[in-house]
């Protein structure tokens, strides 16, 4: 079935799926995964699918899943609270140095990034964590510590996770820090990260708890990663508390990184400038209670951003592609949501097989960034066309600023 704004996928024995995917590719595997999720008995109304949709673990990335009376931990995922932060500055392109290499190096020194290889017997410090956390990390951790101690009383195994030393750090994969220019040549700082190791530990633990509950009660599922926690159970309450804390950690993680990013830039650009002129800090992997169609429901956004009427959000492109600061239109059918990026068209393994370092160098021409074999999986051609993605969701958001990165730091 077609609608002026979206297509509808009817699912036998399940809720229907509304898809803002006109003009962009959608894998058959992703459609199957969406259908499996739509068959869960606690889906409220329908599932909303964003144009960056692609296959995920358990539930599809780029989907908005409304539920009543239950929550699916794998739909939230293990990078709980992953999201974006962007801040406009009073600097312009003319204030930037001709050689952007030292600027990139200063940012790399100021923000731990990457991840130590998970080799057998490795006991050293993760290179993506702090050896000695700086003052902004200490101040932020004080705001998180007491609540974390309560979470750990209920789930003791979380106590020894990498939390304090990961606060204010980037991670790896598609996480990044960027310096960008907007359409008027103003400089923006933008970054992408989440709840790091502690969020991963929380997500992994409760996904397993949900699976154990399903086995205990002999509940058959179309996909084991759709294991859920029913409202009113101990695991449900403990998960909601832990995931809420992880989302706070993720938001604060981005704030601390932004502080350190600004301080690093000031060591290279001595001209006084202001930042946070326009600032956005938004999750795109999270769950929270919201009011839709007359009811309070749990909304899980797995690779989707809140886009209430007038609300600002961030839709990044890939390395070398444009990014967008957007304003939500409050589309009810999308549960007030929009995409969280361009969305992958191929796996990381496939991208590394298909493209070369020469391809990466050409695709990121004009951007001061890594261009080695270890980041080929982030090449722009492994992602959907961001312009087509934006056209497909023109009923969900309007573009406020168009950003083009000139410096990109990846883990």
Topology record:
Elements: E1 7-9, E2 16-19, H1 28-38, E3 46-54, E4 61-67, E5 70-71, H2 73-76, E6 83-92, H3 101-110, H4 135-154, E7 176-181, E8 186-193, H5 196-216, E9 229-230, H6 234-268, E10 279-283, E11 285-292, E12 295-302, E13 304-306, E14 312-315, E15 322-328, E16 337-339, H7 348-354, H8 357-363, H9 386-392, E17 397-410
Parallel strand pairs: 2-3
Antiparallel strand pairs: 1-2, 3-4, 4-12, 5-9, 6-8, 6-10, 7-8, 7-17, 11-12, 13-16, 14-15, 15-17
* Largest sheet: spatial strand order: 10-6-8-7-17-15-14
The main β sheet shows up as: 7 strands, antiparallel
- Rg measurement, Å: 21 Å
Order of helices and strands: EEHEEEHEHHEEHEHEEEEEEEHHHE
GO molecular function, one term: ligase activity
Organism: Undibacterium macrobrachii
Pfam families: RtcB (PF01139)
Protein name: 3'-phosphate/5'-hydroxy nucleic acid ligase
Compact description:
It catalyses: a 3'-end 3'-phospho-ribonucleotide-RNA + a 5'-end dephospho-ribonucleoside-RNA + GTP = a ribonucleotidyl-ribonucleotide-RNA + GMP + diphosphate. By secondary structure, this protein is α+β, with helices and mostly antiparallel strands.
Report on this structure.
Helix content is 30%, strand content 25%. It is an alpha+beta fold. The protein has a single domain, classed as tRNA-splicing ligase RtcB (Alpha-Beta Complex), CATH 3.90.1860. The strands form four sheets. It has a seven-stranded antiparallel beta sheet with strand order 10-6-8-7-17-15-14. Helix 3 packs across helix 6 and helix 4 (135-154) runs antiparallel to helix 6 (234-268). The chain is globular. Its EC number is 6.5.1.8. It comes from Undibacterium macrobrachii.
């Amino acid at each position: 079935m077609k609608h002026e704004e979206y297509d509808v996928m009817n699912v036998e024995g399940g809720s229907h799926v509304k898809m803002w995917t006109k003009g962009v590719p959608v894998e058959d595997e992703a459609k199957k995964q969406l259908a499996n999720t739509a068959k869960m008995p606690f889906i409220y109304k329908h599932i909303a699918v964003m144009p960056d949709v692609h296959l995920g673990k358990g539930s599809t990335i780029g989907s908005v899943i409304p539920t009543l009376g239950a929550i699916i931990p794998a739909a939230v995922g293990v990078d709980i609270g992953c999201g974006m932060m962007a801040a406009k500055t009073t600097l312009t392109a003319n204030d930037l140095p001709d050689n952007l290499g030292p600027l990139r190096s200063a940012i790399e020194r100021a923000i731990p990034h990457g991840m130590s290889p998970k080799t057998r017997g490795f006991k050293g410090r993760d290179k993506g964590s702090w050896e000695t956390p700086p003052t902004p990390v200490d101040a932020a951790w004080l705001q998180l510590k007491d609540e974390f101690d309560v979470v750990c009383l209920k789930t003791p195994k979380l106590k020894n996770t990498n939390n304090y030393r990961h606060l204010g750090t980037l991670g790896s994969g598609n996480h990044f820090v960027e310096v960008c220019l907007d359409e008027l040549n103003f400089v923006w700082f933008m970054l992408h990260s989440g709840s790091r190791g502690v969020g991963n530990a929380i997500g992994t633990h409760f996904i397993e708890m949900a699976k154990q509950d399903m086995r205990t009660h002999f509940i058959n599922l179309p996909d084991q990663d759709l294991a859920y926690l029913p409202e009113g159970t101990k695991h449900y309450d403990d998960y909601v508390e832990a995931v809420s804390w992880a989302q706070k950690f993720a938001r604060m993680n981005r704030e601390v990184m932004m502080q350190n990013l600004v301080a690093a830039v000031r060591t290279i650009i001595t001209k006084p400038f202001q930042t946070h002129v326009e600032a956005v800090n938004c999750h795109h992997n999270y769950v929270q209670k919201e009011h839709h169609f007359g009811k309070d429901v749990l909304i899980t956004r797995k690779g989707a951003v809140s886009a209430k009427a007038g609300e600002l959000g961030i839709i990044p492109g890939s390395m070398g592609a444009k990014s967008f600061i957007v304003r939500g239109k409050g589309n009810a059918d999308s549960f007030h949501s929009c995409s969280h990026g361009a969305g992958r068209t191929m796996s990381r393994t496939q991208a590394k097989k298909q493209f070369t370092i020469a391809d990466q160098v050409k695709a990121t021409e004009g951007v001061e960034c890594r261009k080695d074999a270890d980041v080929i999986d982030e090449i722009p051609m492994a992602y959907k066309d961001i312009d087509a993605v934006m056209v497909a969701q023109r009923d969900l958001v309007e573009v406020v600023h168009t950003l083009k990165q000139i410096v990109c730091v990846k883990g």
